[in-house]
Amino acid sequence: xxxxxLPESERLIDDPFAARVVDERATAAARNDVALQNVIRxxxxxxxxxxxxxxxxxxxGRPQVLLLxxxxxxxxxxxxxxxxxxxxxxxxxxxxKAELLAGVQPxxxxxxxxxxxxxxxxxxxxxxxxxxxxRPTIVVWEGVINYLSAAAAEAVVAQVGGLLAPGGQLVxxxxxxxxxxxADFERSTQQVSQQLSEGGEPLRAGLPDAHGTxxxxxxxxxxxxxxxxxxxxxGATSHPRHYPARMFTAVRRx
Length: 254
What we know:
By secondary structure, this protein is of the alpha/beta class. It is 41% helix and 17% strand.
């Protein structure tokens, strides 16, 4: 939403539905954290580009886009791509999104798969919803990993690895814990971490060894970059690294 206020060269993304899914408090907090705004724009652009590139690379296979922990992600509503979207999240989260986006028609077909991934494997409900493991699939796992325990995050990666056909992709963000621990960032975000905990979404370990976990699940990492350093790819203004967030793209090997 705030990206629309920027010059076109700095905007990077266009999300006309953002204003429908955030309240005034969240908007004010984002407005006061310019560095975070930059990270979110770059993260969103990276994933949008990955989805478009993957779909374009598989014109004959009718690709699938699996939004894992979809939250309020509106990609199926704002992206016109020749693919079918599957959205997995808590039933209450998907119900909330339906309320917030009531009356808006998605631009791409979408199927909702309500699952509590913290307690239930998502594979069987996804297959029952019509997902086809043989079709080319890109999995988007955005803003989720670092709210999971290491064991839970590793279990999800293993499930995705067992689900995707060779050539399928997993795109996600994660925290580089070695950069984070003991740094000024960790100290400066203690209040935010406390607020997240009080809201029921405490920050956790995520993937302490992201590359090792991906290798064990049958993936090859083909891209891994600090989010803020992505600005060079898009011709946007460079900013000093402030957040420990990284983006990766991993491909399911043969």
